[in-house]
Structure formats: structure tokens, C-alpha cells
């Protein structure tokens, strides 16, 4: 069995929210040819997508070819809209979440849903998370920062408390990448900024004591934890030599949190994936592909297959760790 925890989906049709809300910055779709659409931010081109980004039947066909049994669905991070007015973001979140809920309800053995919530206003975020729990969502996807605020800010604690009480997993995905204006060439925001963003998120949660305050939270981080695994030695050294700067909110060694959270397997480097498994533990790495985007793994699980792992370990990476993170039973996806 293979469960891909990192895939993105969007409805085939989006309202013109800029016209409805009276201000700009929102994504809309231009279906300029069959099975293809341009994601547009006002008049600015953002990305070209194909029908596998919205069509569940197409996704199932491609999953079958790639030997993926189940996809965990989350919105495209540009749709977070944390910068927008909170009530408007809530309306968009509901629209996107209702779409995912509909897809999951039609194909419950093929898809699992992660919600998006208006993180800029905790009370609204909690309300939408509670609604999505009733709709059957297994967790929530959030960004690595919320309008440049780190995830350890106390204003986000009610969201963490609610996620813990609702037993919902959290998937942290980079967006709003730091340094974008300084490195706009060569696709560097995606190549450099994204890994740095995930490192930023993990470190802010560690040093901010969030893992201590909410011990039952089940976090997973995209792209193998970004640059955190490669830089954990530096992080730990900084904790040792400058506790006056690093240990002000949490005096526990950062290395103690290795194995506390999950990451996906999307690393694109066989040796480094092996290192991450050794660093975090074979119980904490889940298959993830970033389907259907080009920076993802074209055949999900191919890197895991190349590793010298026994069948038991591969089973953990391919599906068991995902089930543990999402608190789901394998029987839900077994055919009658």
C-alpha cells in the first residue's frame, strides 16, 4: 500500500474574489484550452496547471499508473490568502474545503482531506477547523509563516490547542518565501527560499516551546523538512554556545526533538533521504510527491524503492507512518 501525504488540488472553477471583495491579489483561473488553465493573480501569470490538478478521475488514473493507492489532498499554498481580510479568507477556505470534502466523499478509499483555515484570525481558524472535523477531514495544512509571523507566536496557540483536542494532524508547507524580492531570478524562491522556510518553521516551533506546550500535536513538514536536517548541527551548536539568544523560551536541546515530528520523503537525493531516515527515525518519514507539480517526484516512492530497506521499513515509509500521523486505520482503504 502507498499513501502520498503531499499532493495539491484546486477546484476547476474559482469565483472572481477580487470583484466580490473589492480589492486585488486573489487567484483566478483562465481555462484557455482543453484540460489546461492558467492560474492568474489579477493580471499576473502565476502558474499553468492541467486537469490532474482538479479532476479526481484523472488523478485516480495517474495514481494507478504510479502505484499510489491513496492521496492526501491539500490546497495549493498560494490559496492560503492569509494576507486578505480574515472574513474573506474564511469564505475562500470554506469554498476550497467544501471542494476537497466533496472529492473525498465520492472517492473515500482514494483520498484523504486536509483543510485550509484563516490563520490570520485564530477564532475563525478554529471555527473552520471544527467544521472540517465534522466533514471528515483528517488534518489541516498551514503555512511556514503567517504574514511573516513565525509559528511560535502566541496568537496561534488557540489553533494548536484546537487541533490537539480535535485530534487533527498539521501539515506545514512553505509559502510567502523569505528573500523573494532579493532573489527573483533563477527560480531561487522555490529552490532556496522553500527549504529555508521549512527550517524557519521547525526552529521557531522548537525554540518557541510549541512542541512542549502542545505535546500531542502531530506535525509533518513538507520537502523532507527543508534545510533543517542538513543544518541541525548548526542549530544545536547555536543552542549550546548562545543560550542567552536561543534558549529564552525553551531550554531543551533542539536535538531532543528529532523524531518528534514527521517529514515527507520529497528530497530528490537518495543519500540525503537515507540520512534523514537515520536522523529522524524510520517511523517519521512518509511518502510525499508534491503531485502534480514539476518539482515533485514524477513516480512517487521511486527514491524509497532505491534505498536498501527491508519490506517492514518500506511499509512504514509507504503507508504506516502516514496512517499514524493522520490517526487513521488501514482498513478504511481496503477494498471489500
Can you describe this structure?
With about 325 residues, the protein is an alpha/beta fold. It has helices spanning about 15-20, 55-65, 85-105, 120-135, 155-165, 190-205, 210-215, 230-240, 245, 270-280, 300-305, 310-325; strands spanning about 5-10, 25-35, 35-40, 45-50, 70-75, 110-115, 140-145, 170-175, 220, 260-265, 285. Strands 1-5-6-7-8-9-10-11 form an 8-stranded parallel beta sheet. Strands 2-3-4 form a 3-stranded antiparallel beta sheet, with no helix packed on it. The longest helix has 21 residues, at about 85-105.
Order of secondary-structure elements: EHEEEHEHEHEHEHHEHHEHEHH
| CATH-defined architecture | Alpha-Beta Barrel
Count every helix, treating DSSP H or I runs of 4 or more residues as helices: 12
Question: Helix coverage percent of residues?
Answer: 25-40%
Order of neighbouring strands in the sheet with most strands: 1-5-6-7-8-9-10-11
Amino acid at each position: 500500500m502507498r499513501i502520498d501525504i503531499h499532493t495539491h488540488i484546486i477546484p476547476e472553477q474559482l469565483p472572481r474574489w477580487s470583484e466580490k471583495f473589492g480589492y486585488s491579489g486573489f487567484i483566478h483561473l483562465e481555462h484557455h484550452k482543453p484540460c489546461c488553465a492558467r492560474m492568474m493573480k489579477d493580471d499576473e501569470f502565476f502558474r499553468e496547471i492541467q486537469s490532474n490538478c482538479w479532476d479526481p478521475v484523472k488523478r485516480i488514473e495517474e495514481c494507478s499508473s504510479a502505484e499510489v493507492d491513496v492521496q492526501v489532498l491539500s490546497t495549493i499554498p498560494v490559496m492560503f490568502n492569509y494576507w486578505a481580510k480574515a472574513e474573506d479568507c474564511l469564505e475562500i477556505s470554506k469554498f476550497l474545503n467544501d471542494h476537497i470534502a466533496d472529492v473525498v466523499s465520492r472517492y473515500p478509499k482514494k483520498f484523504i482531506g486536509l483543510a485550509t483555515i484563516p490563520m490570520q484570525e485564530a477564532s475563525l481558524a478554529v471555527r473552520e477547523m471544527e467544521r472540517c472535523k465534522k466533514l471528515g477531514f483528517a488534518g489541516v495544512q498551514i503555512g511556514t509563516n503567517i504574514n511573516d509571523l513565525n509559528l511560535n507566536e502566541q496568537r496561534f496557540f488557540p489553533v494548536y490547542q484546537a487541533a490537539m483536542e480535535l485530534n487533527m494532524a498539521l501539515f506545514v508547507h512553505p509559502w510567502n518565501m523569505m528573500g523573494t524580492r532579493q532573489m527573483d531570478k533563477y527560480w531561487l524562491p522555490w529552490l532556496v527560499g522553500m527549504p529555508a522556510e521549512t527550517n524557519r518553521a521547525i526552529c521557531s516551533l522548537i525554540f518557541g516551546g510549541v512542541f512542549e506546550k502542545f505535546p500531542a500535536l502531530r506535525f509533518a513538514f513538507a520537502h523532507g523538512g527543508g534545510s533543517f536536517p542538513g543544518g541541525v548541527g548548526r542549530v544545536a551548536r547555536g543552542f549550546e554556545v548562545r543560550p542567552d539568544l536561543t534558549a529564552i523560551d525553551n531550554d531543551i536541546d533542539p536535538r531532543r526533538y528529532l523524531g518528534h515530528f514527521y517529514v515527507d520523503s520529497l528530497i530528490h537525493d537518495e543519500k540525503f533521504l537515507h540520512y534523514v531516515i537515520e536522523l529522524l527515525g524510520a517511523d517519521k518519514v512518509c511518502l510525499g510527491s508534491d503531485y502534480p507539480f514539476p518539482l515533485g517526484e514524477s513516480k512517487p516512492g521511486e527514491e524509497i524503492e532505491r534505498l536498501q530497506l527491508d519490506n517492514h521499513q518500506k511499509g512504514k515509509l509507504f503507508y504506516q507512518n502516514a496512517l499514524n500521523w493522520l490517526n487513521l486505520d488501514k482498513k478504511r482503504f481496503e477494498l471489500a
